[in-house]
What we know:
Mean pLDDT: 97
Bound molecules: zinc ion
Order of helices and strands: EEEEHEEHHHEEEEEHEHHHH
Helix content: 25-40%
Amino acid sequence: MNYTLGLHEVAAGTHAYLQPDGGWGWSNAGLVVGDGASLLVDTLFDLRITQRMLDSMAPVTSGAPIGTVVNTHANGDHCYGNSLVKGASIVSTDAAAHEMREVPPSMLAGLNRAPGEVGELFRHFFGEFEFDGIEMAYPDTTFTGRHTLDVGGRTVELVEVGPAHTAGDAVVFVPDTRTVFTGDILFIGGTPIVWAGPLDNWIAACDMMLAADIDTVVPGHGPVTDKDGVRQVRDYLAFVRDEATERFHGGMDAWDAARDIALNGYSQWGEFGRIAVNVDTVYRSLDPSHSSPNVVEQFKRMFTLEAGPR
Ligand SMILES: [Zn+2]
């Protein structure tokens, strides 16, 4: 399947909405179409691009309106467009629903408008998006563990796998077409970022998908893949966990460790500077008293790594 902007039917009545190049904020979404009703997996980062997506889905959803939105996690590029899906029930894990309230669109709007170095840094990552005036629509239905939904006669299974990428990640299985929408449990072509961790939870989520009866894997960012894509992400996470753990026990500082680890082939992946956040998360899970830098410093470190010689 071509990795092009727009709606792609990956299996019967099962669609991926893709946004190349999958970098910061350019997330994917999914659409499961049943008899007279559809389910949307995730909305997008701002209202303009979410409306563009909903318009592209209209030929399909006119006969099967979106009755349910599932937010795979709390990051804005998967939920800030919720308010445009009028009348739909919004579902997420309990933890994701809580986390959504911590970073409202107005906060990113403020950072994108900030003067000086902070504003410049955020615009480097998020300057293409418009966060002003977004009214956030929060989940009305939350769950822990597993949650089964009926979508016009089709079964959709939500499985909580966080904390991993964030506090409340879930993946969405569509058993009748052997498809999974992974949210940001998979980045393909780009580097996973482990905000919450521990990395072991995320590795376990990959193992669970590798054991599942699936053929088609729609990542949160990047092109549609299969179990090979799951394996690559699993391998990266195990590599980072092992390399960071060794340096932690050797007494190396987390930021030094992030700069010390030789990424080899992984430096070809987009956003490879996320190693800074990932190593810090390993340190935090090994030592709960480890104090992580604030989010501005985290972005500064990623920027520094990606701008510097490698
Ligand atoms: Zn994302």
